Amino acid sequence: MKLTTRIFCAVAIFALANVATAQPEYLNSGQVLPSNLPFSEAVLVGDLLLLSGQIGNLPGTLELAGGGIGGETRQVMANIATSLSAHGYVLADLVKCTVFLADMAEWDAFNAIYATYFEPGRYPARSALGSSGLAFDARVEVECIASR
Q1: Fewer Cβ within 10 Å of end Cβ, the chain: N or C?
Q2: Dist CA 51 CA 84 (whole Å)
Q3: C-alpha span between 32 and 30 (Å, rounded)
Q4: So what's the pLDDT on residue 36?
Q5: Which domains does the chain have, with CATH numbers?
Q6: N- to C-terminal Cα separation, the chain
Q7: 97-to-10, 42, 52, 147 alpha-carbon distances in Å
Q8: In what side-by-side order are the strands of the sheet with 140-147?
Q9: Is the model more confident about 51 or about 36?
Q10: Sign (positive/negative) of CA torsion 138, 80, 96, 35?
Q11: Burial class of residue 70 in the structure, from the number of CB atoms within 10 Å of its CB (0-12 exposed, 13-18 middle, 19+ buried)
Q12: C-alpha span between 71 and 105 (Å, rounded)
């Protein structure tokens, strides 16, 4: 086995052991979502921060940003950045995102905006799904995992 493969495996095992033994912390900054919703904004487990799905709501409300998929995508990314910052993380710490689109025909429009939030070549791993409906009639929802 190559040295780099051995090092990667050792780091992965250490990281998994750290997560497996860490007690989860349930976090709500109150900076993005109303505080009366029945889920946590984020859960911290070891060095992993798991963000609940974010829609393009205006902070503190359930009102969606105007401008269709473009406006909602920009607001989703602003909401993610705000949630990350509230818990000591930044967009560059994202390692995985899952994207839900109400209309897969808006894939290109979403990607054009999403890509601008990351350094080229340093994009989080990502999955994207079409949906028959999102909360509050949103066009897009994004959930993420960050790691320090």
Answers
A1: N
A2: 8
A3: 6
A4: 84
A5: 24-147 (3.30.1330.40)
A6: 27
A7: 25, 14, 11, 12
A8: 25-27, 42-45, 48-55, 140-147, 94-101, 125-130
A9: 51
A10: negative
A11: middle
A12: 16
